[in-house]
Write a structure and sequence with these properties.
The protein has 734 residues and is of the alpha/beta class. It is 44% helix and 16% strand. The protein has a six-stranded mixed beta sheet. Strands 9-8-14-15-7-16 form a six-stranded parallel beta sheet. A five-stranded parallel beta sheet has the order 19-23-22-20-21. Strand 10 and strand 11 form a beta hairpin. Helix 12 packs across helix 13 and helix 22 packs parallel to helix 23. It is globular.
């Protein structure tokens, strides 16, 4: 065994070697940045030529130069993170961006390029010609550490550090999601580089890197198939706004900024929902039975609509009674015709019925021609008011709000929902004006938007960007026109629904109605679907859920199972595993790869001392770890628990208070878990802080509710990388 002095000397020598290469890379990057800035300035000077062709050339030069400069600026930190030493003495450096020297020799290989795959795929069992794999840590432009894996034990190359993966796991995560691009392992890399077509299914337990793999896959697809995926767009969907904010820095750090990130509650234009319903109510709203309810609801007449129409016209009383109006409404709205789209047809039917009244009451000699009759009728304010009230343009939120009336909802749900379910839904919808929609409501709003349709709009004329003067069009190549078409396609509306690839994280909790909502945004897309059945909080019909998922995810499937827990220590995951085995004894759980020797700490305190105990535990963990601390609570306690913390803690950027549902997909260096028993058995209606749930509905699903609670507790217990403290008023672990 070499002594410590020898080890330190070797480390310093190897760091010096890597520093020399890093200096060379950053010197080249500085030169490229200067060249790019010069090209940008030269582009602007072209405008001085004074002709239209020069202006077009200026725009092209400035656009490409600015995009290149942005890429160089974005990848400055940690630009080079890997090195491969191959047989024969060949050396390759891997980083966030490909960089070549002045003679076009590669200084850094982009991590997404095929040449870099061995950094992640080579193992001691299958070294793929790699002798040593080195991970390089740096801060700014200074190398701070190295971690080597010697894949060929016969090699005499020096080895530094504890190994790339375990060394990275011992460090703090930071406030955003940890970028694992430097520590991707072989099974993760296989999922990242899965075929671009069809459906890639990635399954794995807590800490297996599912989310990081999904995001790296998005970056990889944009790199390898840019024309397809940048043009059509990539949509990344997460379970909550907290989660989306958590991952928001990952794709830009990987060199990609073109993907769209949304929470499930943000997929409908103009809606931002983050509140969650209790599990049984969420399962009811997510059930496909709601399709029948909503289809019937949009067919009903609007509340307070006029039941008859009377108008004096040239001595005649024109009248349409309730029966006549109902016949027109049913005739126009028959079948699957969308209400908003047939509004014009409904108005035409009213004109027809009133003209029939005219022909019956007014002699032919005194009648005006029909076009004149319609013009005069349209000018009457009372007629226009009637039409607007009888057949208004409906918005999804209006229809959903009308279902707060148990009688109206009961008609739409006849034979589909039980009285208890009708009462629970109506009670939930009554709170829409004050609380806004829940996450489960968003899928109902999207379904209603489809059922209602939208009135036809005249097509917008698109300016021809190559027309430099009236009747004069610039000479262009096919590539120019293709690039312009892609650029126009990327100018997407807020309600864009034609993504080329959709990434769904925490997919085990996506309801059948939410799968329908996702399918509308990726009808022709390929998919990456990430989840863990053991973490599912879904309490509805599993067969219905499977059918809805399969209808959305069409195409050949590529399945990947991640089996290694890189996040939790053995001590922490054993506690989480004991919980999930109560409801899923045969579940295939991931294997943790490290031990810290620090077991979880459980504290039971009287109810009156809970706020002080939580604040004390938070203060303790903030002192013990360098990175983030999460306070995870039942939904009913989240806001109150945040108020228990002193102002100094609340202002600490390392601290975050979330509910157990919001914690899905999250990772913290340390966790304070508050009232774990309340996650398994939520508080009663009076204490929930959100949307009372009908007792009959809750009583109908007691087992499902407890199982869902235990699965959610499993999630909460597996968020910490280093330390876990539970604080509560009962012994939840008995």
């Amino acid at each position: 065994m070499p002594d410590d002095d020898t080890t330190d000397t070797t480390r310093q020598q190897e760091i010096a070697i890597e520093q020399r290469h890093l200096d060379r890379v950053y010197e080249r990057v500085a030169q490229l940045r200067a060249d790019t800035a010069r090209a940008e300035r030269d582009g602007y000077r072209l405008a001085q030529v004074g002709n239209l062709g020069a202006l077009v050339e200026r725009d092209a030069m400035v656009f490409h130069a600015a995009r290149r400069r942005a890429a160089l600026d974005a990848e400055h930190e940690g630009l080079v993170f890997g090195r491969l030493d191959r047989r024969g003495g060949e050396v390759e450096y891997v980083g966030r961006l490909g960089v070549r020297d002045a003679d076009s020799a590669p200084l850094v290989v982009d991590w997404r390029a095929p040449a870099a795959a061995d950094l992640y795929q080579a193992t001691a069992a299958q070294p793929r010609g790699v002798l040593r794999r080195r991970m390089i840590r740096s801060r700014g432009e200074v190398v701070t550490g190295l971690d080597d894996d010697l894949l060929d034990p016969t090699s005499d190359l020096p080895v530094v550090g504890d190994g790339a993966l375990l060394a990275s796991l011992s460090r703090a995560t930071g406030t955003g999601m940890r970028d694992i691009v430097a520590t991707i392992q072989a099974e993760q890399d296989a999922a990242i580089r899965s075929p671009a077509t069809g459906v890639t299914m990635i399954e794995g337990g807590p800490g297996t890197g599912k989310t990081a793999v999904a995001l790296h896959r998005a970056a990889y697809l944009l790199y390898r198939h840019r024309a397809r995926f940048a043009g059509g767009g990539i949509l990344v969907v997460g379970p909550s706004p907290v989660f989306v904010n958590y991952i928001a820095t990952v794709l830009p750090s990987l060199g990609e900024q073109s993907a769209t990130l949304r929470a499930l509650g943000e997929l409908v234009e103009g809606v931002r929902a983050s509140q969650a319903d209790p599990s049984p109510l969420a399962a009811l709203k997510g059930s496909l039975r709601m399709l029948t309810v909503l289809r019937r609801a949009v067919k009903e007449q609007v509340p307070d609509a006029p039941t008859e129409f009377r108008l004096a016209w040239h001595g005649a009383l024109l009248r349409l009674d309730h029966q006549a109006l109902e016949r027109i409404r049913r005739r126009v709205g028959s079948g699957r015709r969308r209400r908003n789209e047939v509004r014009r047809a409904a108005f035409d039917q009213i004109f027809d019925a009133l003209w029939d009244e005219v022909t019956e009451q007014v002699p032919a000699a005194r009648r005006r021609p029909r076009p004149e009759f319609e013009d005069q009728l349209s000018d009457r304010p009372e007629f226009r008011s009637f039409l607007r009230a009888w057949w208004p343009l409906l918005r999804p939120a209006q229809v959903l709000a009308w279902l707060n009336d148990p009688e109206r909802l009961g008609r739409a749900a006849a034979g589909v929902l039980s009285p208890a379910e009708v009462a629970a839904l109506a009670g939930s919808f009554r709170r829409l004006p004050d609380d806004g929609p829940t996450v489960a409501d968003v899928a109902l709003l999207d379904e209603l938007d489809t059922l209602l349709g939208r009135p036809p709009r005249p097509p917008r004329s698109r300016r021809d960007q190559f027309e430099v003067a009236p009747g004069v069009r610039e000479v262009t190549t096919f590539a120019d026109r293709q690039a312009a078409a892609r650029a126009a396609h990327r100018d997407r509306p807020d309600d864009y629904r034609d993504f080329a690839h959709v990434v769904v994280d925490e997919a085990q909790d996506v309801s059948p109605m939410q799968w329908r909502m996702l399918r509308r945004r990726g009808r022709h897309a390929s998919w990456t679907v990430v989840g863990d059945p053991a973490q599912s909080a879904w309490t509805g019909d599993p067969e219905e859920l499977a059918r809805a998922r399969d209808q959305a995810l069409r195409g050949r499937r590529h399945e990947h199972l991640l089996t290694t827990n890189y996040r939790n220590s053995v001590e922490i995951f054993e506690r989480a595993a004991a919980v999930i085995r109560k409801v899923a004894p045969d579940a295939s759980l991931p294997v943790p790869v490290r031990s810290t020797g620090v077991p979880p700490v459980d504290r039971t305190v009287p109810a009156g001392e809970l706020p002080e105990a939580v604040a004390a535990a938070v203060a303790e963990l903030l002192d013990q770890v360098e990175g983030t601390v999460g306070v995870i609570t039942p939904q009913s306690l989240r806001d109150r628990a945040a108020g228990w913390l002193p102002a100094g803690q609340q202002a600490d950027s390392r601290l975050q208070v979330v509910s157990a549902l919001e914690a899905k997909g999250m990772e913290y260096d340390a966790v304070v878990l508050v009232e774990a028993a309340g996650i398994v058995a939520p508080a009663g209606d009076g204490e929930s802080g959100h949307r009372p749930l009908d007792r009959g509905l809750r009583a109908a699903q007691p087992a499902g509710g407890r199982e869902s609670g235990l699965r959610t507790l499993y999630v909460a217990l597996s968020r910490a990388t280093q330390r876990l403290v539970t604080v509560g008023t009962t012994r939840w672990w008995d």
